Every structure is written in structure tokens, then in C-alpha cells.
Amino acid sequence: MNHAPLLKKLLLACLGMFAFAFALVPLYDVFCDVTGLNGKPSLERAVVSDTVNTERSVDVSFTTHAQSGAPFKVESQQYSVAVQPGAMREVKFSAKNTSNTDKIMQAIPSVSPGKAAKYLHKIACFCFDQQPMKAGEEIEFTLLFYVDTELPDDVEELTLSYTVFDISGQVVAKNDEAAKLIAN
Amino acid sequence: MSNVINEQATEHAHHDHHPAKGFKRWLYTTNHKDIGSLYLIFSLTMFLIGGAMAMVIRAELFQPGLQLVDPHFFNQMTTVHGLIMVFGAVMPAFTGLANWMVPMMIGAPDMALPRMNNWSFWILPFAFLILLASLLMPGGGPAFGWTFYAPLSTTYSNDNTALFVFAVHIMGISSIMGAINVIVTIVNLRAPGMTWMKLPLFVWTWLITAFLLIAVMPVLAGAVTMVLTDKYFATSFFDAAGGGDPVMFQHIFWFFGHPEVYIMILPAFGIISTIVPTFSRKKLFGYASMVYATSSIALLSFIVWAHHMFTTGMPVAGELFFMYATMLISVPTGVKVFNWVATMWRGSISFEIPMMFAIAFIVLFTLGGFSGLMLAITPADFQYHDTYFVVAHFHYVLVTGAVFSIMAGAYYWLPKWTGNMYNETLAKWHFWLSLISVNVLFFPMHFVGLAGMPRRIPDYALQFADFNAIISIGGFAFGLSQLLFVLVVFKCARGGDKAPAKVWDGAEGLEWEVDSPAPYHTFETPPEIK
Q1: Which residue has the higher pLDDT, A149 or B503?
Q2: For domain B264-445+472-530, which CATH number applies: 1.20.210.10, 2.30.30.320, 1.10.600.10, 1.20.1290.10?
Q3: What DSSP line would sit under B350-381, residue for residue?
Q4: Among B248, B249, B316, which would you mutate to test the A interface (most chain A Cβ atoms within 10 Å of its Cβ)?
């Protein structure tokens, strides 16, 4: 009995499943993107809305926290704001590098409930870029956002959470300023 | 050149008829019976080592407070106990049984790929050597639970994690090779006339298990590889700072992990389906439905993984889907349980040791299945998640399920393997002590779990003290009882009443047509199946 053909097929199946494990990574992202499942909001600049729903008001709260060990203190200046869907809103965040070395900060947004993530549009956000911060420097950042008029009715409030990470020296800088900072 | 070939040829011929003596016989063996024995002995050794770790866990939990070991070591014990029992005890035991029995059951002379068979066993001890050695290194072994969730296994683990990863890689390669061998053997080496629907159920369940292994062990290998590169090579599969997602780890892990639990129970179903008809002296009730039920369990196992993750914040639609899909599995499982009961119904039942273990399996595995159904209810799972209720559930399905079936199988086929009957008195003591102590050990875990005692914690609130003392006593008793099993096996291998070819009068199957002990080579000319 020649076992080689079946053996080859089974080995191929194994390799295929090993590859599938890695294919799960992009598949997972695509799946979450399409369904808006895990509260990952878009990191792209949104287009300004042209309609405003003045009938409805949604509470948007902000929380921030630094990943353990990341030497940043970031706070929103308002705890929560009431917005009308479609209307633009500006919120200031103050961020401080509490260490005595220059650092690069990256903020990662997350929205709760997860299904509301795709309805929160950011026009300007410090999370779009890596933020170089000098030792002890304090910077004020602006978040410009609006809530989509299509936001499902059962969502009455949502929370935008930022986790800030210290990515100094860990990644290749996206913008020139960060690159300069690393070079220094 | 021709010299070498000649040498190999003579060596080969020599090996075929008279196995080499001593250690080399076992190191170089390509005989399915030798390799089966190696697997089984290895599995028993690992069962005792993993069991010793469980004794450390239960000794620490005997009283509230921290008394014997420090919490970090306790975490290493829970982690390595789990890894050893899953990958070192249960899976190799089933592979060992498959090696011994599958070729004999289908009338094949050996496994299809005997050299790979040798290799798939002999890399296994090294995997566990690496894993166990990591316990002795500075910083200790893996302490993040056998499920090695990121970021516990990436950001918060020590540098010995690489050893854990390589150990899991080797275990995975070993099981994949074992699975490939089983499939090729069953597909290509069935005796003439052994059609698919005449296959003994142990062969069927192992065939399906082997496909599950091929489908998910590579995914586990992928998951540990991602942990490795996240930890040492600055990738960010599971690190949000680099655009990854720690929840994705759980999805990938449980995509492997759920089929894995069926890998550990489907061969058990096969063993029970072999033993129950023998001692009921009836044909198995609903053979075809058993085959289809096993296949449906295997297929369903791929779409239920997220029931391990109800508390990660899934949308309601997802929770409902995974809840109903999980509950659906109880239908084919129920078919099997009812078939076993129907087989026993009005049978001329006799209660030999394998049958006693089989009946204990049916009752206690079903009990574990019921607590599984409770855990499948999403809103209830929010309370049960990560409590001792979960620990109770999976120990009922794995200890009184998988392990009891392995014991049943061992008692059932020991006379065939050794040519001697085991010591009935000692075996009875082993059974009854195990049965009582295992319930003293695991049943109260349901209560402390429902009351909120978390798993994987070396200390607990005072109100759990009494139950934990009882659990620990049950644990020590169960652990000690297994030494009786070692004694029974040892004595049986050394001698005892001679067993006839057909050890059990109600037994059916080709393995009972060869002598006891089974000759070194069986079915060199394939038997005719009518």
C-alpha cells in the first residue's frame, strides 16, 4: 500500500491550519471592522457631518489611563458632555510627561458600548499621531468629534476611553517630529 | 554503499523477528505494541507527576491562608498540573491505546508509518523534560494558567516562557504525527471486508479525533508562536500598544481549546462503547447513530469556542449564538448516553472491573455534562465564570470521564497485553476507593464555586474552609488510590492467572482472535472479515 498520497494531503492540511492560525489575525480585524464588535474606533480623520439631529441628546464621557509603567498623565478637562448627533464638539485634554526623559506617547481609543464605536467620528484627535513629549512637558490636546445621526436609539450614553502607551524607541516614527526626537 | 544497505537489511530482518534487548529495543522500536506500551507507561508517569502537583495544590488549600508554598509557586503548580494532565497524561494515554488496539482491531500488521510512530513518541519525553526543567530555573516555570492568556504569558511572564513555548511545540508535533499515523492506518490498512460501517467504535472515534487533532494542533502551535514573537521579537499580535488585541488571543486559543476537549473525550466514548456491550452480552445499541453522533460532536466543536469567553464583552447576538450552539452539543452526546443505557437494558450484565469503570463513567461524565450545560447559559456563566464550579465541571468530564475511561480500557485490555489476569481484589479496591474519593474531591467544588470561590488562587475566604478541607481529603485519598493502580499494572505485567485469547466471553472483535499476550506481530496476513 502506498501511503505517500494520503500522507502528503494530511501534512498539507496541517500546514494549512498553521497558516490559518495566522490568517485569523487579519480576519479578526476585518470581522471586527465590519461588525464594529470590539469597540475599536477608526483611526482615520472623519468627514464633517452636514446634518444635525437637534431632537436628541447623547452623553459622551471620557476616561483615560496610562498603561502600567507609561510615564504619562492624561486627563480630559470635562468628565462628560451632552451632544446632539451630528453636531461638532471640542474637548480639551491635558497630557503631561511625568518622567525626566523625552518620550513618545501613543493614545489608543476604545468606545463602549462596542457597537457604538463606528458612530463616533473624530475630526481631530491626538490619537491619530504619535505624540513626542519632552521630559516634564505638558501639552494641551484637542479632540474634535461628533456622534453620527445614525446612532442606534438604544444607545443613550457612550464612553470614549483612551489608553496611553509609551512607545519611545519601540516603533519607527510616523511623523518627522517623532523621528527627530528619536534621533536626539 | 551496498555494504550499508546490506547491514541495514540484516538489522531490519533481525529486528523484525527478535526485538533487540534492553533499552535499545525501546529506543529503536517501530512495533506498534512496543510504542503503545511506551505511550501508556509515559502517560502513567505523567499522571503521577501531574497528580503530585495536584497534591501540592490541595495541601495549600487545605486551610485558608498561605502556609506551604508561596503564591507564585502555587500558580506554577496549577499551570503545570493542567499542562501535564492534558498533554502528558490524557492525550498520550489515548495515543497509546490507539497504537496498541487500532491495528489489531482492523486486522492490520502494524501502524502505517512505523518510523514516524517511533519519532512521535520519543520526542514527547523531551517536551516534558523541558517543561519540568523550567520549574527549577531562576524565576520558575509557567505561572499563567494552562490557557496562557496574553498578556499574562507575554508582558507579565518571565523569560522561561520560551521553554514553555518550545515544549508545547514539541507536544503538538508529536500529537500531529500520531494523528496522521492513525488516519493513514485506518484509511489504508483495514483488512479486506472491513468496511467503514463495520469498524469498531474505538477505531471510529479515534479516526474522528485524529482529524480534530490535525485541524487544531497547528492552531495551538500558531498561538504559542505568536506569544513567542510578542514576547521576544517585538511583534504585537496581542499588544494593544502595537495595534494588536489581547482578546484575540482568547479567540485563537479557544478555537484550538474547544475541539481539544473533544479530543480528550471522543476516544473515551469509543472505549465505553466497546466495554458496555461486552459485559451486557448484547450488541451495541444504535451503532450507526453512535458514528453520526461522534461526527456531529466533532463538527459542532468548531463553532462553540466563545462560550469560554462570555465575560469578555461580546455582543448579545454572539452570546446567544454560542449559547445555543453549545447546548446543541448535548443532543448528540445525549444520543450516546441513551445508547449505552439501552445497550445495558435487559442485558446479562456482569460487573467486572472494566464494566464498573464504564458505568461510573456514564453516570459521572453525564453529571459533568450537566454542569457544562449550566455553564453554557450565558447569564448564569457570568456568575460561574472562573470559579470552582468550572473546576468541578471540567474535572468531572476529564477525571471521571477521560481518566476513568482510560482505566476501564486498561483493565479491559491488560490481560490481552500481558497475557495475565490482573489481581481482582486489588482492582476492586482501586475502583471503589477511586469512585468514592473522586466524588469527595470534586463534588463539593460545585458548592464552593457557586458560593463564589475563585479558581487559581492560593488563599480563600474563611467561609470556604470546611468544604476545602473535605475536598483536600478527597484529593489525597484519590491520589493515593492511584498508587494501587500502579501496583495492579505492575503485578499484572509480572504474572498472574493466564488469560485465554478471548478474555471476556461477551467480547467481540479481531483483537480477541489473537493469543494473550498478543504476539509481537499480529495479522501479518490480513484476516477475512465476513
Answers
A1: B503
A2: 1.20.210.10
A3: ---HHHHHHHHHHHHHHHHHHHHHHHHSHHHH
A4: B248
